[in-house]
Amino acid sequence: MRTALAIVMLSLAITQVGCAPYQFGNAALFPPGVQTVHVPIVRDSTFRHDLGVRLTEAIIREIELRTPYKVTADPSADSTLRCEIIGETKRMLTETNADFPRALDAAVQVRAAWTDRQGRLLLSNAVVPTGDLSILFSQDERFVPEAGQSVDTAMQKAIEDLAGRIVSQMEVRW
């Protein structure tokens, strides 16, 4: 009985001291000390000016769904995630005998930077930081006009995938 009591007391002492910084749930995947994220409208330097607003909405949705952070409109939030669409392309992959497009790729390229209030980099694409404050993301989606698919549906799918990849990069490196 004494041995069992000693083991229980020892395990309680170890859990109180040894595991104090341990976090449970998805909060363990993200940097501590950050509770709010400001996501300004994504700048868009392409001819498709609606892509920036659509990507902003997708990123906010992903952050609210997958992270412990609260997205706020306040620029003095704990952190800021800035993104810029730097390119979008449409490329023909195959064509019919009559030279009509059969399968195409629609691609979007984005530069993203996540910093805290002091301007320190929170988003990192490498185990060893390079000093660059932004990460480049690119996503392409295939679409087939003959099957009723359009460049708009392909771009929306690419935007949703990009938002997921950007938010995934917000996780802490192991």
Automatic annotation (TrEMBL):
Keywords attached to this entry: Signal
GO biological process, one term: Gram-negative-bacterium-type cell outer membrane assembly
Protein's UniProt keywords contain Signal: yes
Organism domain of life: Bacteria
InterPro entries in UniProt: LPS_assembly_LptE (IPR007485)
GO CC field: outer membrane
Pfam families reported for this sequence: LptE (PF04390)
Signal peptide: 1-20
Keyword Signal: yes
Name of the protein in its database record: Lipopolysaccharide-assembly
